Structures are given as structure tokens and as C-alpha cells.
Known about the structure:
The structure is a single chain. 78% of the residues lie in helices and 0% in strands. By secondary structure, it is mostly helical. Helix 3 (33-58) packs antiparallel against helix 4.
Amino acid sequence: MVFVMTGYPLLSIALIGVWAGQKGVLEQPGENRLLLVRWAAIGLPVSLAGAVPLTLGGLQWWTPEPVAVGLLSALHILSGVAGGLAYAALFGL
Length: 93
């Protein structure tokens, strides 16, 4: 459990959610439009960029070493946080 909380970005996601909830980011999208647009504009490309290497490996267009697969998996997970924020921002908009 400790590894999951520290090894994956669960704590950071929860803290961002708490912060956004306290600020009313999604409840008042008109007042937070610029922030939501920035989250969406930055988060979606970052998420896509983090998914490309594993996708290429899955399609067998590229065969990374096992260590690289582990590092790319971590990159994919972290970039997924950006994608999650982007999708939340798009739903808010």
C-alpha cells in the first residue's frame, strides 16, 4: 500500500483534486476559464506524448529493452495524470 501511494501519482492526484475543489475550479468554470483552457491545452498533448512510446512498442514497430519498458511505463502513468486533468478541464468547460 505504501509503494502504491508513493510509487504512483495517487497522492498528487488527490491533492490536486482537493485544491481544485476548495477553489471551486469546476463549480465556477466562467471564473476559471483561463486555467481550464491551459490545463486542457497542455494536458492533452503531454498525455498523448507519454502514450506514443508504449503504443509503438505494442504495435511492434519498436522493441525497447525491458528497462526502457519500465521507464516508459512510468512516463505513461505520469503523463496520464496530465491527461486526467485535461479531460476534467474539458468537462468543466
